[in-house]
Structure formats: structure tokens, C-alpha cells
Amino acid sequence: MALPETETLLLEQDGPVLHVTLNRPESRNAMSLGMVNELMAVFDAVADDDTVRAIVLRGTGGHFCAGGDIKDMAGARARAAGGDADAFYALNRRFGEMITRANVQPQVIVAVLEGAVLGGGFGLACVSDVAIAADDAQFGLPETGLGVIPAQIAPFVVQRIGLTQARRLALTGARFNGVEAARLGIAHEAVPATDIDTRLADTLKQIRRCAPHANRVTKQLVLNTLSQPLSDVLDQAAHDFASAVASAEGAEGTMAFVQKRLPQWAE
Asked: Which N-terminal residues, if any, form the signal peptide (predicted)?
């Protein structure tokens, strides 16, 4: 696997875990178009790589992501003034393509949420498989207070926490901390900032206990429940189950259980 060259992301592979760190600390890791494109490139590069089992998303400088980049908005405004009628559409829709890609990424996405988790950062949190928040992190959807809308984020917020809470947060721009984010279901847990690294390590250990291919198929199964008829989901799940039982992973998992040892993929 060859990882792409990146300017706004720090990439570090640690065994089966790829750490992707948003690296624009001067703007609290605001999501520029360059960062969006680099995230897309990273997701594409590892999508078919079975050796990468988890992707950790985090931010430098004590912040996850403070939302969209104002400079990109200014650039789009200049292009629109110059006659490009699709400037704002293209900028916004590209973020939607990236967050959609993150949502279906075969690996387990673990988001470490510290400091500002706003706008686009909030959206990324809502498509993670596991979200660990610092209890003092600051969450919010500030778009309507700026005269714009959470256009590409809103559907994923609704899927994450339900319609009624999504309406409240989007239509008030309320700010809240990591404890409240965990209560709402945006994050799965909130811990003191000093405990974040320990909790992340525990989570990655849990993921390593799960069979790589089984995890990929299970993630797709869960996502299919949102878009396919139940009978179709269950029919495909039965086929996938039969394949899993007959696979090398299935044999190793069963043998490890009988022999009271860890399976090979967890060692």
C-alpha cells in the first residue's frame, strides 16, 4: 500500500492502525478543500487493503476540526463574482462526497474528539464507528448563525442522533461539551482529556480482537439496513454468514475458542 503525499494531514501507520491527523493548527484544523481532497485520497488508497483494520481520525493542537475553511469560502465567492455559478455548490458538494466516503469506509473509523468539534468536524464525528470525546470538547453546528446551512452534514446528524435532536441542534446552533455529546449519542463516551490516549489504546485493542474480514462485512451489513428492504438485508446476511463460517477466519476463530487462546489476528 502506498499512502498519498499530504500537506494538511499527518499519516502514521502502526501495524493494522492508520493514524490520520488533521494538521492545520493555525485554523483549529478547519476543513479546507485541500484537506477534503487529501482525506478522499487516503480513504481510496487503503479501502482495499485488508492489513489496515482501523483508521484513527484526530486533530493537532488540541482541536479536532473547527468546521469549514473561511478562505475557501472567500475563494468561491470570488469565483462566483467572476461568473462561476457553481462555485459554492462544487465546494460544498465535494465535502459531501468525502463524508459519504468516510461513512462507508471498510475500516473501523475511530474519531478522537478534542477541543473544537464544529461544522464539518461535527459531521465527521457523526460518521465514525467509534467516537471518543474529551469531556471538555466543544461541539456545535454554527452554520445557521453564519447565515448558511449544514447542507452536507445534516443527513448524517439525523442518522446519528435522530430527527428531533438534530432539528434542535441545527436550528439553535447550541454549543455543548463532550459529556452532552455522549448523552446525545454523537460520541460513544466522554472521558477526561488526560485519559484520551489510554481509552484510545483500549478501543484499538478491542478492534484487534475482531476478525478483519468479518468486521468489513459486518460494517456493510449494518449500513445496508438504512438503504435496503429488510428481507434483502437478511438474505444477503445469510449468504455472508455461510461464507464466514467456511472461511479461514471462521475456522481460526472457532479453533481459538476451543483452544482457549487468542485468534491469530489478535496477536
From this structure: none
Alpha helix ranges (H) inside 173-229: 178-184, 196-208, 212-224
Domain boundary among 159, 191, 207: 207
Residue 110 CB contacts under 8 Å (≥ 6 apart), including other chains: 54, 55, 56, 57, 128, 129, 130, 131, 132, 200, 203, 204, 207
Summarised one tens digit per residue, pLDDT across range 241-255 is 999 999 999 999 999
Whether 55 contacts 109, CB under 8 Å:
yes
Distance CA(130)–CA(189), nearest Å, equals 9
- Tell me, yes or no, whether 4 lies in a domain: no
**Segment holding 57, helix H or strand E:** strand 54-59
Could you tell me the CATH number of the domain that includes residue 126?
Answer: 3.90.226.10
For 87, the domain range is 9-207
CB count, 10 Å around CB of 68? 26
The string of pLDDT tens digits covering residues 201-244 is 999 999 999 999 999 999 999 999 999 999 999 999 999 999 99
* pLDDT tens-digit map of 146-196: 999 999 999 999 999 999 999 999 999 999 999 999 999 999 999 999 999
Is 235 found in the same domain as 167? no
Distance from C-alpha of 114 to C-alpha of 26, rounded to nearest angstrom: 16
pLDDT of 1 above 80: no
Instruction: Please tell me the total count of domains within the chain.
Output: 2
Distance CA 86, CA 104 (A): 27
